[in-house]
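Researcher: Let's try something more involved. This one mixes different molecule types, so please make sure each is placed in the same coordinate frame as the others.
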Amino acid sequence: NAGVTQTPKFRVLKTGQSMTLLCAQDMNHEYMYWYRQDPGMGLRLIHYSVGEGTTAKGEVPDGYNVSRLKKQNFLLGLESAAPSQTSVYFCASTETGASTDTQYFGPGTRLTVL
Amino acid sequence: QKEVEQDPGPLSVPEGAIVSLNCTYSNSAFQYFMWYRQYSRKGPELLMYTYSSGNKEDGRFTAQVDKSSKYISLFIRDSQPSDSATYLCAMSASGSARQLTFGSGTQLTVLP
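Model: All components are placed in one shared frame. Result:
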């Protein structure tokens, strides 16, 4: 049981390049989330999904797109990377029907945009 | 103004000290309150969960929620060097697709 995994762990992009971050979970969770973490800002929600085929915007969605084609995977895309998107990106998932809102986090992807 | 305010620290204490970490919030719809612990270069992991007001104890950790004051606290007794991490408060409202709003985190170092 791997929990939540993220690919890649590190990436360096040039301004204007595109990339996709992959999140996978093996806990059969319905809800999945993408956050970014910046110094002094805590974790901010980018996009989330409440089930396969659904996505919704979070607090800071601009410049990002997401897709949830399979229940276990949640992809985060940057179409044209900007230096302001330099951050650590975390994926998380949670189960529906649970008594808590516990979110399980992946190990993170460190992205630098030059 | 942020919905959730947390003193960023850093906080440095000697081993065995009692540590108090706090967050204030402005959204009265928040009903679920959590504390996450994040070690350096790792993802956050849930430490404590509390619903509505009251106290919850788990070993050396106690979480308190005062909804009337919109204030939550985490106390760590007999702190250990292994407690050195960033502590993030988080909260959510019912019907919010379990979205969490996080504080900015407090970096704690427990010195041996």
